[in-house]
Specification:
The structure holds 2 protein chains of 2 kinds. By secondary structure, chain A is an alpha/beta fold. Chain A contains 18 helices and 30 strands. Chain A is elongated, with a radius of gyration of 38 Å. Chain B is mainly α. Chain B is 66% helix and 1% strand. Chain B has a two-stranded antiparallel ribbon. The chains are: A alpha/beta, B mainly alpha. Chains A and B meet through α4, α5, α8, α10 and α11 of A and α1, α5, α8, α13 and α16 of B. Chain B: One of its GO terms (biological process) is cell population proliferation.
Chain lengths: 618, 834
C-alpha cells in the first residue's frame, strides 16, 4: 500500500525551529527550515544530517517550501542551502521572498554581535539563497515536476503567510505553517478548500486556549498607552521590524487620529520604514478593509508616526517609541530602556516572545533590579566612576506584557479541520501536553487519527488511493440506455467494461472498442453443462415438457421451442438426448454465453431438481 | 522497501562503527555481517545499507565477505540504487580497489548511454551486450505484431499474454467440462504476470530469473532449440541474462522521466571524482553533450547514442536539475588534464545556455560560475600554446571569438526581467572584466538605477572591480569617473536599502587601494560623514574599514621606510584657499612625487578651523595619566630616528589631514554607536590613532618635546554632533581629575588659572586663550586630549564582551532559575512566539 511519511526535524512537540520532512509518492519535501530562538548552540538549526550522511541534500529533496518569513520558519534556510548545500527549488510567496532577506539580515546582525559566531552565513549567502527561491501566488497550482504539484492558500498570521497543499497523484498533504482563523487589523483569516488531504499538518501553538477577543486586548493596550501619555510618561514598545509593529502602528495611528492626541510617536530604525514599504507593496495580501480604504488613504502611510533619532530619547514630555530589537538584548531598544527604566511614570509594553536570559525576559518575570556590567551606554547615563565593573539598574517603569500573536486557537484549529476534512491529522509547533489534549479532542470529534510525532520520529500513514479512470462516452451512453437510476455520486453502481492500462493512463471502454483498439479478434466463450434427468418420455416429449415447465417458471423471458429440437431461453440452448440402453435417463445439454451466466446457472440448478410430474407434453 | 526500524538501525550502525575501538569493533562487525548479508541477499539495496558496509570497510581490516557484499550491492538490478551505492563509495577516500572499476562502470554507464560518448572500455560487457542484443532482435522479429515499442520486455510480455489467452480459449472450446475449473488457471496467469510486472521495478534477481524461465517456456518451437543450447552452458547464460537485464533495466530507467533525471544527476555529479587522466576529455564531452540535450539539441549524429534513448533525451529538455548538476561538475572538471582539448565545446555550450531564453536563473548562475572556471583554463594555454602544439592555436583563436560572442548575450541578460538573472550577470561581468582586463562601465552604470537593491549593489561591486582597470588603460573617462563617484555618493545618501550603501563604501575602499592619495578627498569626506551616520551597521563597519585604510595611508607609522627615503617636498605654495576640500594630496602617500600644496611650516598662514595651530605647551600634557595601561603598539615616533624631515611635523600633517577628512568625527560617531561591533571597531581604531599620534604622557613631563605639543594642538569640530555633550563632559571630568593630581604633585599656581577658564568654558573665543591651554573653544576640541579623556582601554574591554554576556553570566542564570520557580504567568510568554 502506498504510504506517506512525516518526520519533524524541528517543531515536533516543540515551538521553534520548524522543519518537517514529508515523503509522499516517492517525493521528498521539506516544509519550512527554521531556527530556534531559544538556543545559541547546535540545537539552533535542524539536524540536516538526519536526511543524509553525505551532504547530498539536493539529491534527496525535491523541493523546500517556506510558509512565512518568521525566523522560526526560515532562519536556517541560508545555512541549509549555502553551507550544507542544497541547489534545488525553494518555494515561498512573493511577500515572503521580499521580506525574508530583511529578517535574515537582522538575525545575522544579532548573531554576529555575539561572541564566537564567526562561522555564520554572510549577506552574500542570504542573497544566493534568495536567488534559488521560486515565488508562489495564492491558489496557483505549481508543478514542481511531472508528478509533484503544490498550491498555496491564504493563512493570515503575517503578511505573505501561506498554507500549502502538496499533491502527488491522488495523495495529498496540507501543511498550515502558522495561521490565524480570525481576521485582525491588517490581515484576513485563513481559508482553504474542502480538499480532503490524506494528512493535515497543523500548528498547535494555542492547542488548549480559547483566546479572548482581540478587540479586548487592543482596547486594553490603547488604554494603557493613553494613561501613560496623559500623565506625561514615555512608552517604549520593543518590536521586531516586521509583523506586529505594523499592526500596532495602525492601531495607534487611528487612535491618535480619533482622540486628537498630540504626543509624538516614533519608529526607531529605517528597517521598519522599509517594512512598511513592503506592506504597501503587497496590499493585496492584507485584509479587505485595508484594501478598500487604500484608494482614499493608504493605511501604512502614517501621519502621526515619525522616524526616531537617538537624541529624542532625552526630550522631555510624553512620547511613544517603537524600537528594535524586540527582546531588549542589544541595540536601540536596550539603550532607550536604560534611559527610561528609572522613572515610574514610564511604561514598557512587550508585545512578543522573549528568550530566556534577555533583559526582556527578566523584566517580564518581574525583576526589579538588573545587574549590568559597565557598558558605555550605562556610563553615559549613570555617570558611574571609571573602574567600577558592575552597576545595578532599578526598574521602576511599568512593565506590561501584551500578546498580539496571531495564531489559531483550539476553536480555530477545529474550524480548519472542518474546512479541509482531512483523513488524518498531525500536530506540530506546540507543546506536548497541550497537543495531547487537542489530539484527544480531535479524535473524538472527527473520528480520524491524530498524530503528534516528536523531533526525529517518523509517522507513517497508509493511504488508500482512489485511482481515477476515464470512461468512454459510448459506454456511459449505453449504460444510460439500459435505464435504471441516474448516476448518483453517493451510491456506488456496478458497470461492465474493459479496462485498458496503457501509457500511464487507465480507461474503461466497451469490449468492442477495446478489441478494435488493440486489434484483437473477439472470442465467444460458451459454458456447457450436462444435467441428467429421469423422465420416461421420448426425447421430443421431454423437451416439450421442459419447454412448458420453463414457460411457467420464467415469466417475462423469451422462450422458444425451435423446430431443430432445441429449446432456447434467451441465448441458452437446451438439447435432450438419451442413449439406447437407458432411454429413460435423459441427458440435458445446456449451453450459454458468458453474458447469460446468471440465467444459465439458474437453469442448470433448476433442471437438476427434475421436472414436476403434472406437466403435459404440449 | 525497508522498514523504518531496519533503516534506523542501519543509520545508527553507520554512525557508531567508525567510533568504536578495536576489540569491540571486531565483535560488532562479526555480529552484524550475517544479518547484513541476509539483507543484501533479500535484495535490500538501500543506500543506508551501503553506508554501513562502507563504514565497516573503513573501520576494520578488509574482509573478503564484505567486499563481495559491496560488489553485489553495486550489481543491483535497479540502476538508481546501484548508482547511489556507487556514489557513496566515492566519498570516503577509501574504495575497495577491486571495486573501483565496477563503481566507475555503474556511475558512468547512464551518461554514456544517453550521450553516446564512449566513456567506458567495456570489452567484456560489450561481448555480452552484443549477444543479448541478438537475442532481443530475434525475439522481436518473431513476436512483434503491430506495436513498435522501445521497451522490449514490454512487447514480450504482451505477446505472452496473447499466447496464454489463445491457449486458454482453445482449452475451453475443446473441453466443455466444468467451466469454473478452466477459468481459474487463466486468472492465475494474469495475476502472476501482474505481480511480475510490479516487481520488476523493485527488482529481485530471483524474479527476473523466474521471468526468464517463464519466457523460455513460452517461446515457440523455433526457439526451443536455441534455448536448450543456452541451457547447456548454464553459467554463461546466467551472465548473459544479467547483462541483458541490467542494460535493458538501465534503458527502462532512462526512459522513465523521474528515474532518468535522478540517475543522471548522480552520474554527472560523481563524474569528476571517477575521471582519470585518460578519460577526462571524453567525460567533459559527455557532460557537454548532456547539456546540449537539455537545451533541446538531439545528441550529435556521429556519436552512436544508445538506441532507444530518444525518449530519455526528450525527458531531459529544459530539465534544470540535470543542467545544474552538469554545470557543477563541468566547473570541477575544468582542472582536469583533458580540459584544454575541450575548451571550445565547453564555451559553445555555455554560451548556448546563456542564449536560451528558457534557462532557469539558478542554471544561469551556475553557468557563470562554470564559465569563470573555464576562462582560467583557457587563459593558461596562451603561454603554453607556442611550446606544446601548433594545433592549439586555432582553438585559442576560436576561444577569443567565443568570448567576444559573449558580450551581446550578457547585455541582454543584464536587462532580464528576473532580478536573479540580472544580479548574477552583473556579478559575472565584474569577475569577467577582472579576469580579462577589460571594462564594461556603461552597462554597469545603467544598472545603478535598477529597482532591486541587490542588483544595484552588485553593479557597484562590479564597478569596484573594473574601475581601476579603466584607469590603467588610460581611458579618457575622467569626467565619467567624476560622474560615477557622484552617482555613488547619491546612492550612499539616498538609497533606502542597506546593500547598495554597503557596496558604495566597499567601492571606496577598493578605490582607495588602487588610487592611493586619491584625487578627490571631497568624495571621501562625504563617504565618511554619510557612512558613519548610516542606519545600517554594516555600512558603519565598512566606513570604519575605510577609516583604517586612510589612517594607514596617512600616518607615518606604517611607512617609516618611505618616510626616510622620500622626503616630501614642503613648499611655500600653500595658501589659505588651498585648504578647501578640492585637491588634497598627502605627501606621505605612496606616490609622493607630487608637490603638496597643503603643508606649510608657518602656522600663521593657516586660518582654517581644523588647521594646525601651534601654541604654548598645554599644562595638561605634562600631567600623569590616571590610567597606567601599557600600550601594545609603541608610538612610532619614539622608534623613528630623526631624519632630515621632521617626523613630528609629518605626524601633525597626518593628523590634521585626518581631521580634515572627517576621520576623527567618523571614529567618534562609531564609538558612540549603539551597535557593539561598530563601537568596538571604532574604539580599537581610536586607540591606534592615539598611540600613533598623541604623545604618550606616561613618559613623564620631561620627555615631552615641543613637537609633541604641536601635535597636541590639532583640533577638530564638535559642533552639531550627537556626542558633543558627552565628549565635552568627559573632557571636563578628565581635566578636573588631572588638575587635582597635578595640583597635588606640583602645587603651582597655574592650575588655578586653568580652573577659572574651565568655568568659562565655551564663553567665547577669548576663552580660547593659548596661554591657558584651553582646548575646547567654540565647539572645537583638541584631538589628543579627547582621545586621552575617553577611557578607551576600559571601553574596549567592555565592548569586547559580546552582547549576550549578561544573559550568559552565572548571576543571570541564577536569577532566571529563581524566577522560574514562580512560573504562574510565564506560560503564555513562552508560547507567544514570534
Amino acid at each position: 500500500m502506498p504510504e506517506i511519511k512525516v518526520t519533524p526535524l524541528g517543531a515536533g512537540q516543540d515551538v521553534g525551529r520548524s522543519c518537517i520532512l514529508v515523503s509522499i509518492g516517492g517525493k521528498n519535501i521539506m516544509l519550512d527550515c527554521g531556527m530556534h530562538m531559544g538556543f545559541n548552540d547546535d540545537r539552533r538549526f535542524p539536524d540536516f544530517s538526519y536526511i543524509t550522511q553525505q551532504g547530498r541534500l539536493t539529491e534527496f529533496l525535491d523541493c523546500v517550501i517556506i510558509s512565512h518569513f518568521h525566523l522560526d520558519h526560515c532562519g536556517a534556510l541560508p545555512y541549509m542551502s549555502e553551507m550544507v548545500g542544497y541547489d534545488g527549488p525553494i518555494y515561498m510567496t512573493h511577500p515572503t521572498k521580499a521580506i525574508c532577506p530583511i529578517l535574515l539580515e537582522d538575525f545575522r546582525k544579532i548573531t554576529v554581535d555575539k561572541k564566537g559566531e564567526t562561522n555564520f552565513f554572510t549577506s552574500q549567502m542570504i542573497k544566493d539563497c534568495m536567488k534559488k527561491v521560486v515565488p508562489l501566488n495564492l491558489h496557483q497550482t505549481v508543478q514542481v515536476d511531472d508528478e509533484l504539484e503544490i498550491k498555496a492558500y491564504y493563512a493570515g498570521h503575517v503578511l505573505g503567510a501561506a498554507m500549502v497543499q502538496i499533491k502527488v497523484g491522488s495523495e495529498s498533504v496540507v501543511y498550515t505553517g502558522d495561521y490565524n482563523m480570525t481576521p485582525d487589523r491588517h490581515l484576513g483569516a485563513a481559508w482553504i478548500d474542502k480538499c480532503r488531504p490524506d494528512i493535515l499538518i497543523s500548528e498547535s501553538t494555542y492547542a488548549t486556549t480559547i483566546r479572548d477577543s482581540k478587540r479586548c486586548r487592543e482596547r486594553d493596550f490603547l488604554k494603557k498607552v493613553h494613561e501613560t501619555v496623559e500623565r506625561g510618561g514615555k512608552v517604549l514598545i520593543p518590536v521586531f521590524a516586521l509583523g506586529r509593529a505594523q499592526e500596532l502602528c495602525i492601531l495607534l495611528e487611528t487612535f491618535w487620529e480619533r482622540m486628537n492626541m498630540k504626543a509624538p510617536i516614533y519608529f526607531s530604525t529605517g528597517l521598519t520604514e522599509k517594512a512598511n514599504h513592503y506592506y504597501k507593496l503587497f496590499i493585496t495580501w492584507t485584509n479587505q478593509k485595508i484594501r478598500k480604504t487604500f484608494v482614499q488613504r493608504n493605511m501604512f502611510e502614517f501621519k502621526h508616526i515619525k522616524a526616531f533619532d537617538r537624541s529624542y530619547a532625552d526630550n522631555p514630555g510624553p512620547m511613544v517609541v517603537f524600537a528594535t530589537p524586540g527582546m531588549l538584548h542589544a541595540g536601540q531598544s536596550l539603550q532607550i530602556f536604560k534611559k527610561w527604566a528609572g522613572n515610574e511614570k514610564n511604561m514598557i509594553i512587550m508585545p512578543g516572545y522573549c528568550v530566556q536570559g534577555t533583559i526582556g525576559h527578566k523584566i517580564l518575570n518581574g525583576q526589579k533590579k538588573l545587574e549590568m556590567e559597565n557598558r558605555q551606554t550605562v556610563i553615559e547615563i549613570e555617570r558611574c566612576e571609571p573602574g567600577c565593573c558592575h552597576l545595578s539598574l532599578e526598574v521602576k517603569l511599568q512593565v506590561e506584557y501584551m500578546s498580539f500573536s496571531a495564531h489559531a486557537d483550539a476553536k480555530g484549529i477545529m474550524q480548519l479541520i472542518r474546512m479541509a476534512e482531512p483523513r488524518n491529522m498531525l500536530l506540530v509547533h506546540g507543546e506536548a501536553k497541550k497537543m495531547e489534549f487537542l489530539k484527544d479532542k480531535i479524535e473524538q470529534e472527527f473520528t480520524i487519527n491524530c498524530f503528534m510525532p516528536a523531533n526525529g520520529e517518523t509517522t507513517t500513514v497508509i493511504t488508500n488511493p482512489s485511482v481515477p479512470v476515464d470512461i468512454s462516452l459510448n459506454l456511459l451512453k449505453r449504460e444510460m440506455a439500459l435505464g435504471g437510476p441516474l448516476p448518483d455520486p453517493k451510491k456506488p453502481r456496478t458497470m461492465h467494461g474493459t479496462l485498458i492500462m496503457k501509457d500511464n493512463s487507465l480507461r474503461l471502454v466497451s469490449p468492442e472498442q477495446a478489441l478494435k483498439e488493440l486489434g484483437l479478434n473477439e472470442h465467444q466463450l460458451r459454458f456447457t453443462c450436462r444435467v441428467q434427468l429421469q423422465d420416461p418420455h421420448s426425447d421430443p416429449d421431454t423437451l416439450s415438457r421442459i419447454y412448458t415447465h420453463l414457460k411457467s417458471v420464467l415469466k417475462g423471458y423469451t422462450i422458444q421451442h425451435l423446430p431443430d429440437g432445441t429449446v432456447m431461453v434467451e441465448s441458452i440452448v437446451i438439447k435432450v438426448s438419451s442413449s439406447a440402453e437407458e432411454p429413460n435417463t435423459k441427458v440435458l445439454l445446456l449451453s450459454w454465453s458468458y453474458q447469460d451466466e446468471d440465467l444459465g446457472s439458474f437453469l442448470s440448478t433448476l433442471l437438476k431438481k427434475g421436472l414436476p410430474s403434472g406437466l403435459s407434453s404440449m | 522497501m525497508m522498514c523504518h526500524q531496519v533503516l534506523q538501525g542501519l543509520r545508527l550502525l553507520a554512525l557508531t562503527l567508525p567510533e568504536l575501538e578495536a576489540p569491540l569493533r571486531g565483535s560488532v562487525i562479526r555480529r552484524v555481517l550475517g544479518p547484513l548479508e541476509g539483507l543484501v541477499r533479500e535484495g535490500r539495496r538501500a543506500v543506508a545499507l551501503m553506508d554501513v558496509l562502507l563504514a565497516t570497510y573503513r573501520s576494520g581490516p578488509c574482509d573478503s565477505r564484505l567486499v563481495s557484499l559491496m560488489a553485489s550491492m553495486l550489481n543491483s538490478q535497479n540502476p538508481s540504487d546501484a548508482a547511489l551505492c556507487a556514489a557513496a563509495t566515492l566519498h570516503p577516500e577509501t574504495c575497495p580497489p577491486g571495486l573501483r572499476q565496477k563503481v566507475v562502470a555503474v556511475l558512468l554507464g547512464p551518461l554514456q548511454m544517453v550521450t553516446g560518448v564512449t566513456l567506458l572500455d567495456w570489452t567484456n560487457d560489450r561481448h555480452t551486450d552484443q549477444q543479448t542484443d541478438h537475442r532481443h532482435t530475434d525475439r522481436q522479429t518473431d513476436h512483434r505484431h503491430t506495436d513498435q515499442q522501445t521497451d522490449h520486455r514490454h512487447t514480450d510480455r504482451q505477446t505472452d499474454h496473447r499466447h496464454t489467452d489463445q491457449q486458454t480459449d482453445h482449452r475451453h472450446t475443446d473441453q466443455p467440462a466444468d467451466h469454473r475449473h478452466t477459468d481459474q488457471p487463466t486468472d492465475h496467469r494474469h495475476t502472476d504476470q501482474q505481480t511480475d510486472n510490479r516487481h520488476t521495478d523493485r527488482d529481485h534477481r530471483q524474479t527476473d530469473h523466474r521471468q526468464t524461465d517463464e519466457d523460455h517456456k513460452q517461446t515457440d518451437e523455433d526457439h526451443r532449440q536455441t534455448d536448450e543450447d543456452h541451457r547447456q552452458t548454464d553459467t554463461d547464460q546466467d551472465r548473459q541474462t544479467e547483462g541483458r537485464s541490467s542494460l535493458s533495466l538501465l534503458l527502462d530507467h532512462l526512459n522513465h522521466k523521474p528515474s532518468c533525471i535522478s540517475l543522471l544527476c548522480v552520474s554527472v555529479s560523481s563524474a569528476p571524482y571517477v575521471t582519470d587522466m585518460d578519460s577526462s576529455a571524453s567525460v567533459i564531452l559527455a557532460v557537454v553533450s548532456l547539456l546540449r540535450i537539455c537545451n533541446g539539441h538531439s545528441p550529435s549524429p556521429e556519436s552512436k547514442a544508445a538506441i532507444g534513448c530518444s525518449k530519455a533525451s526528450t525527458n531531459l529538455i529544459g530539465c534544470s536539475k540535470v543542467q545544474r548538476c552538469c554545470l557543477d561538475s563541468l566547473a570541477s572538471l575544468s582542472t582536469c588534464p583533458g580540459a584544454v582539448e575541450r575548451v571550445v565545446e565547453v564555451f559553445h555550450v555555455l554560451v548556448q545556455n546563456l542564449q536560451n531564453p528558457d534557462s532557469d536563473p539558478t542554471v544561469l548562475q551556475k553557468n557563470y560560475q562554470a564559465m569563470l572556471r573555464w576562462l582560467s583554463v583557457s587563459a593558461e594555454p596562451n603561454s603554453l600554446a607556442d611550446l606544446v602544439t601548433e594545433d592549439l592555436l586555432p582553438v585559442l583563436k576560436k576561444r577569443v571569438c567565443v568570448v567576444t560572442d559573449l558580450l551581446p548575450v550578457l547585455k541582454k541578460r543584464v536587462c532580464d526581467v528576473r532580478w536573479e538573472v540580472r544580479d548574477s550577470t552583473l556579478e559575472f561581468l565584474g569577475q569577467l572584466c577582472e579576469a580579462l582586463s577589460c571594462t564594461v562601465t556603461p552597462i554597469l552604470l545603467e544598472a545603478l538605477c535598477d529597482q532591486e537593491s541587490y542588483v544595484r549593489a552588485s553593479a557597484i561591486s562590479a564597478l569596484a572591480r573594473t574601475l581601476p582597470l579603466s584607469d590603467q588603460q588610460g581611458e579618457p573617462g575622467n569626467q565619467t569617473q567624476e560622474q560615477t563617484l557622484g552617482q555613488l555618493l547619491d546612492i550612499l545618501s539616498q538609497d533606502s536599502e542597506g546593500f547598495p550603501r554597503r557596496a558604495v563604501v566597499q567601492f571606496f575602499i577598493s578605490w582607495l587601494k588602487t588610487h592611493p592619495s586619491s584625487s578627490s578627498s571631497s568624495s571621501l569626506c562625504s563617504v565618511l560623514s554619510l557612512g558613519s551616520t548610516d542606519l545600517d551597521w554594516e555600512v558603519k563597519v565598512h566606513t570604519l574599514e575605510l577609516v583604517e585604510l586612510l589612517m594607514e595611508e596617512t600616518l607615518p607609522g606604517h611607512q617609516e621606510s618611505e618616510l626616510g627615503s622620500a622626503p616630501p617636498p614642503y613648499g611655500g605654495s600653500g595658501g589659505t584657499n588651498l585648504l578647501t576640500h578640492t585637491d588634497l594630496t598627502h605627501p606621505y602617500a605612496v606616490t609622493p612625487s607630487q608637490p603638496s600644496p597643503l603643508l606649510t611650516h608657518t602656522p600663521t598662514e593657516l586660518t582654517h578651523p581644523y588647521a594646525v595651530t601651534p601654541s604654548q605647551p598645554s599644562p595638561l600634557t605634562h600631567t600623569h595619566p590616571t590610567d597606567t595601561h601599557t600600550h601594545p603598539t609603541h608610538t612610532p615616533l619614539t622608534h623613528t630616528p630623526p631624519t632630515h624631515t621632521h617626523p613630528t611635523t609629518s605626524v601633525v600633517c597626518g593628523l590634521s589631514r585626518l581631521v580634515e577628512l572627517g576621520v576623527v568625527t567618523a571614529l567618534l560617531n562609531g564609538l558612540f554607536d549603539c551597535d557593539r561591533p561598530v563601537a568596538l571597531k571604532a574604539c580599537s581604531l581610536l586607540l591606534r590613532l592615539r598611540d600613533a599620534v598623541c604623545p604618550s604622557r606616561s613618559l613623564g613631563k620631561g620627555a615631552m618635546t615641543t613637537d609633541d605639543t604641536t601635535v597636541a594642538t590639532v583640533t577638530f569640530d564638535l559642533r552639531g554632533q550627537v556626542w558633543e555633550r558627552e565628549v565635552t563632559r568627559k573632557l571636563q571630568e578628565k581635566r578636573g581629575s588631572d588638575w587635582v593630581k597635578e595640583s597635588r604633585e606640583v602645587g603651582c599656581d597655574r592650575p588655578n588659572k586653568n580652573r577659572d577658564s574651565d568655568r568659562t568654558d565655551g564663553a567665547g573665543s577669548e576663552a580660547c586663550d593659548r596661554s591657558t591651554g584651553k582646548s575646547v573653544c567654540e565647539g572645537s576640541a583638541r584631538v589628543c586630549e579627547v582621545l586621552w579623556s575617553l577611557g578607551l582601554e576600559e571601553r574596549q574591554s567592555v565592548l569586547s564582551q559580546s552582547s549576550d554576556h549578561v544573559q550568559n553570566s552565572p548571576l543571570s542564570l541564577l536569577e532566571d532559575i529563581l524566577n522560574a520557580t514562580d512560573t504562574s504567568h510565564t506560560d503564555e510568554v513562552i508560547v507567544d512566539c514570534y
